[in-house]
Amino acid sequence: MQSDNENQRRWAIILAGGEGRRLSSLTQRIAGDGRPKQFRAVLGDSSLIEQTRRRVRLSVADDQILAVVTRAHERYYGPLLEDMRQQNLVIQPDNRGTAAAILHSLLRLAKLARTASVAIFPSDHFVSNDRHFMRHVDQAFEVVRSRPELTVLLGIAPDSAETAYGWVEPGQPIATAHAGIFDVRRFWEKPSAETAKRLLDGAWLWNSFVMVARLSTLLGIIMVMVPELYRSFARVSSSLLTSAEERSVKRLYASIGVTDFSRDVLARCPINLAVLPVRGCERSDLGEPARVIDV
Q1: Spatial contact of 48 and 67, defined as CB atoms under 8 Å apart
Q2: With contact defined as beta carbons under 8 Å apart, do 25 and 289 qualify?
């Protein structure tokens, strides 16, 4: 049972700023417009971002969930997130990759809850059992509470030699109050078919891109691994959550390139990274029409 104080320190960030181009051919036929998949009811009657938000609420209070979106998608996310507090909506002027989206959100969150622990979620994934999956997120929060230097990734036990996913190699067990946490030996992004078969046989895990860490820990990793990006955002941090944010952030995004958090941050710095295997729960990023059909 978590204390109220511990629950107040739990925050979440839902990443919903992507374009979903790989699935655009299918989603165009479903809805007849160009909206990204996270804003569509690809599976079931509600959109993927609404399903993600409901899933996250199982572990994090709704008023402590941030959503990162891109201004060009306002006509899509507006009706779906109209009940979200304005300060919890992180609006990017353009999509500059997951590293910029996460850093923008973290710096905003630092003004709301500097001592927060934060879980980061993609907005466009299918999970077969929400409660089972979120119990692992709860466990990751507990690990981070006792080991604040760690960033805990959720790794999905694979059932195929998937070539379009990122993979994580678990290393040695990490001593925590919870068994089954391993250090991260290395990453492998989108392997060949032959390599994917070898990773499957070697008990590697699919990288779900769901992670839990202290706010300060994530900011520290970004500062070290992509210092120029961090400095760029630091120059406008005083404007965040003020009337000047939109103008200053628009100038900033026009000056930076695309940076991927998994490739440019995590994979380059596997120090103090842990992975928590998730078994007994199916997960798909729904990135290809064939995966949607399979699900």
Answers
A1: no
A2: yes
